[in-house]
Amino acid sequence: MSENNAIVIEGLTKSYKDVEVLKGIDLKVERGTMLALLGPNGAGKTTIVRILSTLLKYDSGKVTVHGYDVKDQAHEVRQNIGLTSQYAALDEFLTGMDNLVMMGRLFHLSKEDANKRAHELLEQFDLVDAANRPVKTYSGGMRRRLDLAVSLIPTPPVIFLDEPTTGLDPRSRLAMWNVIKKLVEADVTILLTTQYLEEADQLADKIAVIDNGKVIAEGTSDELKSKVGNERLELVIKDSENFARAVSVLANYKFIKNDEERTINITIDSGVQEIAKILSLIEQNSVQIESLSLHKPTLDDVFLQLTGHEAEDKKVEDK
Ligand SMILES: Nc1ncnc2c1ncn2[C@@H]1O[C@H](COP(=O)(O)OP(=O)(O)OP(=O)(O)O)[C@@H](O)[C@H]1O
Ligand SMILES: [Mg+2]
Question: What is the pTM of this model?
Answer without folding.
Answer: 0.77
